Amino acid sequence: MFRFIHTADWQIGKAFGNIDGDAGALLRTRRVEAIKNIALIATEKQVDAVLVAGDVFETNTIVPKTIFQTLSAMSEFAGLWILLPGNHDPATTESVWSRIKHSFATPNIFLLTEAEPYKLANHPVVVLPAPLQRRHEARDLTEWFDTHESASEIIRIGLAHGSVDNRLSARGEAPNTISDRRVQSAKLDYLALGDWHGSMCIGEKMWYSGTPEPDRFRANDSGNILLVEIDHPGAAPRVEKIRTAYYTWYQAEKTIFDENDVEDAGNQLNHLGVSLERLVVRLVLTGTVNLETRARIDKSIERLHASVLHMDVDSSALIAEPSQSDLDEIEQTGFVRLAIDKLAIIARDPADERADDARRALQLLYIEHKQLEQKA
After folding, report:
1. Of 44-58, 85-99, 254-268, which range is least confident?
2. The domain containing residue 67 runs over which residues?
3. Are 184 and 331 part of one and the same domain?
């Protein structure tokens, strides 16, 4: 029997440019910690190897310290690591792979940068890799699997990174296509795939492992690795998903009528089964409220934001419609009142392209009024 872990899309060094400050730094650090966790699981499960189906690194230009941290995390498993270049880290002339070979060579880490079979030393197993040597390939790099011959007692495992025809052709990260018939045509016992960031069974012997640590708001079953066991050539593989996600990315849309609806959204977070500090949240708020309610909603959002690792709020469709009492509270007479009345007319006219700006201006005036009122 051959037992191994199938993983992919680590993307070590991912910037998370839209998540700044400590939250972004913690997400970057966690990706390295995820590797250490994989290594510990590999040791616990006594696997023969860990196969990484591409996109080990976010780019080929990552700094040496990141390479060192990655290899250090992998050292927690003394067994065999088999790594494949993907579209984020293709095996170009000046790639992270050449830098590892020249400066960070490790005996138990094998970099499959060429399209040639890799025969495991102590197991009746051959790995057929399809390494990307540039970001996009027009041809199917797994075609050569069909022509490679091996003895009948050898377990054949394909390792590739791309989008499976007729399944993910328009949904993967890059248009590096892989035939949906490759398992059959190449007589593979398993095809380990990367590029799709969620765990997905394409067929009995063809799987995407997904990224071990979620990195986006998409319900695609990310945050897993796969434990695979193959008894002998031709046998159906046994595949077990093992949850490895530390952070949970959660997205929800909420129609808002008052601040209690924001509080309800916060209560939903408490029922996700994970601690709030491990949540990356995106809320899309819709609805129409008056200025007073909108001000209270903003305070509720501020409190909610402080309780999670990171929260992104899209309130572009939450319309702050000023009520007459809102306007009267800001200013009763004078020049400011004239301006407020003009803004109110514009804000209430859906055909006026300035309506959104007018509503925002009224909201800012209301907030400024409330702040001055509190200081008085």
Report:
1. 254-268
2. 2-243
3. no
